[in-house]
UniProtKB/TrEMBL annotation, chain B:
This is HTTM domain-containing protein. Residues 1-26 are annotated as: Disordered. The chain crosses the membrane at residues 238-257, 263-291. Keywords: Membrane, Transmembrane, Transmembrane helix.
Amino acid sequence: MSAFQRWWRAVAAALGIALIVHGSLLGNDDQFPFAPMSMFAFRTDPNGNIDSHYLEADTDAGTRVKVPMSRNGAGMGRAELEGQLFKIMADPSLLQNLADTQRRLHPDTPHYVHIYVMRDRTVLRDGAKDHVVTEQLADWKVT
Amino acid sequence: MSTQTSGPPPAAEAVPEPVGARGGGSPVRGAVKAVRRWWFDPVPGSRLAWVRALVYLFVPYDILVITQDVKGTAALPAEFYQPTMVARWLHLPTPTTGIADTLQWVLLIAAPLAATGRFHRSLGLVVAGAFTWWQLINMGYGKVDHDHFAIVIAVWVLPTAGKARFRDDTPSEAAAWTLRCMQVAAISTYSLAAWAKIREAGWGWASGATFYWAIERRGTPFGKWFLDHPELLRFGQWVIFLAELCAPVILFLRRWWLAAGLVFWLGFHLATWLSIGIHFLPTIICLTAFVPWEKVGTRLSGLRGSRRREDAQAAVLAPGR
């Protein structure tokens, strides 16, 4: 290997390491692939809460079902639901879209007539489950 | 191209000693020499050939299974697209179904071809460009995953590794550098994950209930068992946090210690996969850059040799590192 070939490799490696270290020290996700490795980097308080949001719906068959949280269920995953939660609580009519999508994607299954935004709040004590509070945060009557 | 040679590989002696490298004068010079040896100490080309095949054969699995969502997201209305910095710099167009389909077909054709090692540079660059674009689309809808850093680095360094063949143990400095880059990328995924925890949550991360949070929300039936044993989860947090901090040590280990380190991380990924369904396969694939694959080749030809007596001698004489 020539000196030049060794040199450009040394420079490239140094640059790559500088980029990923910079991304981790000061950067954010925008710098992918040189973004901070922040998977599960948040801390959960052992005496805090664990919130999990999901949707339920009354159907025209008279049943109450959990709305499947996937792109194929009603076009929305849980992460997307949680990302849009404040928006949905401020304007529950956004849930109409979900009902429309479900009708379009699954014409043969019972249709949603009323959709509820639900939250399971697991209350922790000393790092373990103490009790769970289930609450309804918003709802929308499908038109 | 030489096939199996007997005795010490001749090319090892042919590596030129750069001027100024010999005669360990000042400590600075010694350090420079050590750094250069670490990055460029030649490894058998066959080792690179195996790693290259694994990475390029993994690419179709990645785009068809792990990141197959890209085809769905590319079909979303343009206002959902939030391009990341590199995509903006390159002025990549807003993803469409046509772009996603094209990238997918390019990768499905080019990656398996590149795995053979033919036209390693041109095919490798095609895969690198298309795969990076695919990942930029994948990360362009508000959620960035961190398991793809090392493999994105891998597809860019592999085309520089030169002609490496499965049956050619000729030592190569270019292959050494490529494998080192993959190792550093994979290991920094761990060590920088520890740093991210310190940066976001402080040193108290390990005393929190983050594992409990993860399992409570997305745990498998296996994972849910641990909810009755929160002390085990907290212990696991300490183990992982310390292991991530110490991860760079693995770059300097050899043989059984190295193997033990790799087994530890494989065990960690297996555990997270079994308990919360998250695997880090793209990173694991890059960990294979630590494995002396040329020994597998030697072993295979050894097996063939014992079946066919006339080959036995050649197999015994095959150089192994």
